[in-house]
Amino acid sequence: MDNGKLSAVRVAVREAPFRSFLGRQEPSIVQFSPQAGNSLVVDQNDYHFDHAFRSSVSQEQLYDALIQPLVDKLFCGFQCTAMAYGQTGTGKSYSMGMVTDKEPTKEEHLGVLPRCLRDILDRVAAQQENTAERTRITASFIEIYNEKAFDLLSTSPMDPMVTSRCQSRTCMPLASQQDLQRLLQLGTSNRHVRRTNMNAKSSRSHAIVTIHVWQEDGKELARMNIVDLAGSEGVRRTGHEGVARQEGVNINLGLLSINKVVMALAAGHAVIPYRDSILTTVLQESLTSQSYLTFLACISPHSCDLTETISTLRFAKSAKRLRLNPQQMNMARAHQLQLQQKQSMAARTPHIFRRVMTSSTSVKRSRPPQNAGAGAPIQNSSYLMPPKAKESMPLMQLQRTRSEMGLTPKAKKRAREELQLEMGLIAPSVSDMSESSLVQPQVVKPLALPMLHLQRTRSEMVLTPKGERRGQEEELQLDATLVEPSRINFSDCTQEEQDSKAMAPPPPPDNGRRRSRSFFHSSVLSIPEEPGAQQQQPQQPMRCLFFSSPFSPINLQTADSLQMSGILPLETSVRPQVRRSARLNSMCNITQPPPEQQHQQQKNESVLRRSMRLAVKSEKGVVQTKDLLTTQISGSVRVRGVRSKAAATNWMSKHRVMFLNLLNTAEVRELQKLPGIGPKTAFALVMQRSRLGGFQSLAQIESLPIWAGKKWLRVCQANCLDP
Ligand SMILES: Nc1ncnc2c1ncn2[C@@H]1O[C@H](COP(=O)(O)OP(=O)(O)OP(=O)(O)O)[C@@H](O)[C@H]1O
């Protein structure tokens, strides 16, 4: 069966016969086009639908043209809904086959429901002849009356249903037409019906009969909803007062809400008002992307009903604009499961994003693996991230890149520092000490670096040449400061000495020059340093016991690095948090690593230093090395030419995929953290995603009607995407 041929939303109009009790025969206000069977003119307005049925159309013709294709879809595993809408007394219940008389209904008057069931039972019988598969058919019948849902097949049909979407309904097995007749009789006897000026047996409630097709193993293969909406009516025209009037008001409320939902969906609005009424809440599943939807708009030929007829046609017209993307129920379940898995994964990681995006100081570290002895070099720095965070690396990288965009230069620098910290490029800051006492010395993990480098390259693509130069300079300075890490030892000091060292008063202003836009202004690297102390320290090699590592950020600058970077020592101002962290950490009783580990650390240090030197020389053109490791370690060396273009293209395609994945999986609160996406847009995206059953491409997202003006362009720019 070709799934593509049948439009997901089909709209048909059926003209009702003249109401005999009105006692007049007048020309119909509806003119049908003699050529096309799908156009009509009412009040000089043209309307085009999938089908336009005259009053003379038979029930069978209507069924064959409109509903039979739905039954085909039902057996392909799709959820299908047929809904009759229109003014009271225009034949909705008649068309849908929801009326039961004491005498058996004549064959020609059988409506959609009995025909549909007959079709389904015939197919099931044919299927069972050919295969060993056993398929079960059941049906439920609920009504929505006065904004309350009632299970008409339950033992207490007068008690309103509790669950908002009426998921738990009484189902009756259907094996024959007699079963259906019993079901309809039971249901309609419990349904609210009243005599009105317009209809002797006017339905005062919206009725939904759902036929479920079950597989042998108890899985639901598909379902068909047959919806007979109560008729729209002018309260004055029905001549009702009291309870009946209130019924009319509630009927109109439900119809108005369904109207609003359809219009909002058709217009691609961000917020779909499903919750406006119980009717739309119950029908929510059928009015989203999951279902094949068929509307039958029933209209009156009488001129006195012109207003209602035009209103019904307007509704049908807006329904025609709906674009749905039905999914097979089993596939939808699999997709739903997949989505749930992804969402739960994403839900575990926002704390990581938040830290990278909003933290201006430190990145917390997790405990290293148990087998890593104190002070032992850890070959894989990825342990810095919690295991759950490692699962979601692509998302994190996306967020990081994103976090760099749209930030102030200072915040961007901090983000980069944090990124480097996570990648194990630099040692933890003093402000991390309270938590980082458990962190072991690290070796730069080369494999973790290409992404970082590409992210930088990308992030610089949107910078001005000046900004780019400044970024490079700053990175170079950062790299240079990393080359020569030195040590400090608080362990040999008493508490007072430690405090006095840490809280030394700032020197006079002429003691050093402060860089106004330096990395060192962030708490990660804003480490006080006395020029004199630099010479004294090497005499007695000291080790930062808080990290059991020589890569202490306490004193990262040396004469060499200063020479390279051109950075003068910072004045010895000490930030309060540094002092506090130092005090706290000095209280921790951490033992000094054994000599062999110290030796290993020194070796690591020298390897890092050499790599950095090479990288810096390469930047200056002294060493034309293609050593990727060197290039990556420098962080500031730009790969130019063809290779850089290819890398950028590669990066962009990966980035686009990651971005699309994120939009397909993230929840509203995660989406709204993305640059350029606010809470409303995030909500709109999630609604559209649920409507469409997931986004296929960024182009599809771009075409959504939720982007006003150049909003999408701005989102792309803010997220490093090619628009
Ligand atoms: N196409 C038709 N052919 C024959 N009889 C029809 C047709 N359409 C409607 N009727 C008759 O008109 C009467 C009203 O129809 P019906 O109850 O289906 O209207 P309705 O739109 O469901 O009204 P309400 O919204 O008030 O329930 C019924 O007696 C029905 O048999």
From TrEMBL:
The gene is nod. Residues 358-383, 493-516 are annotated as: Disordered. GO terms for biological process: microtubule-based movement; mitotic spindle organization; spindle elongation. PANTHER family: CHROMOSOME-ASSOCIATED KINESIN KIF4A-RELATED. GO terms for cellular component: microtubule; microtubule associated complex. This is Kinesin-like protein. Keywords: ATP-binding, Coiled coil, Cytoplasm, Cytoskeleton, Microtubule, Motor protein, Nucleotide-binding. Belongs to the TRAFAC class myosin-kinesin ATPase superfamily. Kinesin family. It is found in: Cytoplasm, Cytoskeleton. It comes from Drosophila pseudoobscura pseudoobscura (Fruit fly).
